[in-house]
Amino acid sequence: MAPPEWALLERQLLKAQSAACEAFYDHYFDERGYLLCVPRWGGDDGPDDAAENQLNWTMLHALGGSDSVLSLFKQGWEGHLRQYTEAKTVEVDLAMNGMYYKEFPVMFDWFHNGEGWSAFNLLGLSDPYDSSMRIRARRYAGFYNGDDPQADNYDPEHKIIKSCFNGSRGSLLRKATGLDWAGDPIEIEGRFRLGHGERSYEEMVDHFKDYNDIVGDNPMNLHTTVLALNAYMLDHEKKYRDWALEYIDAWCERTERNGGIIPSNIGLDGTIGGETDGKWYGGIYGWGFTVSVPQTGALAHRTYGHTRAINGFGVATLLTG
Fold first, then answer.
1. Range from 29-33, 139-143, 189-193, 269-273 carrying the lowest mean pLDDT
2. Which three-class secondary structure state does DSSP give residue 35?
3. C-alpha distances in angstroms, 172 versus 144, 215, 256?
4. Which SS3 state, helix, strand or coil, does residue 266 take?
5. Residue 57 near residue 72 (C-beta atoms within 8 A)
6. What does pTM read for this prediction?
7. Residues 6+ apart with CB under 8 A from 7
């Protein structure tokens, strides 16, 4: 029986995309797997944006793309981890000793971390016995379930992640500044075209000037449960499943207490709106997060926190059926 036309077209698409990945890698990566770029920290053009140059490569391979796609992804991922471990900030105190520590962001938000880690999180679909992936999956989950005491992110008493800025060096427990978000000063005019439309470094900082309320838990942090899911899927170690469901259940309870609407800030004491003057809709990317666009003065409603929360509830569905 001849294969249907749609199947042949799908194979052509996978072949064409695989060839495009090979050409892209050859043009934009060096022999070490380093991206040919200016390594920077921040929410405009930081490590997650560098990693996104290989976004969906692991998905492409899992769907039937060329083995070269998987090989090139691994080379690029190893290079990425080294490149951003070596990269250091000068003025942003969070990353002066390296943007990555233990092969992971030192502390940043999961709107961005989630983007940067998307391809790695699907690597197990293609190569579940890759030894480096298995070691890293457990290490990354350990930043949140208490296995790594140096990464003081999770409070088991209140069942919260303590800040929107969290990672391998723990949580940032102060208000964030535009500098924390935008990264070190850099010349923009005549060199780069920024995705948010800023025309200067000053506008980059102004873009984030109201991104201050990061202390306390935020629905974006539910994305960390994907790390626990990855670790659990390796050998079904119960501790990873238990932590993920404990944390997700806590968010379900808070949502019920808040009239069925997921709150966007939980205080360090476990109260809804505890770090935002009692406002359940407070915090960065929260339901009330409206900021001004520096180059136009227009208002922008960036209520994106719930978009990462969905991933956490998806994890719960996978873990419980």
1. 189-193
2. strand
3. 14, 7, 28
4. strand
5. yes
6. 0.96
7. none
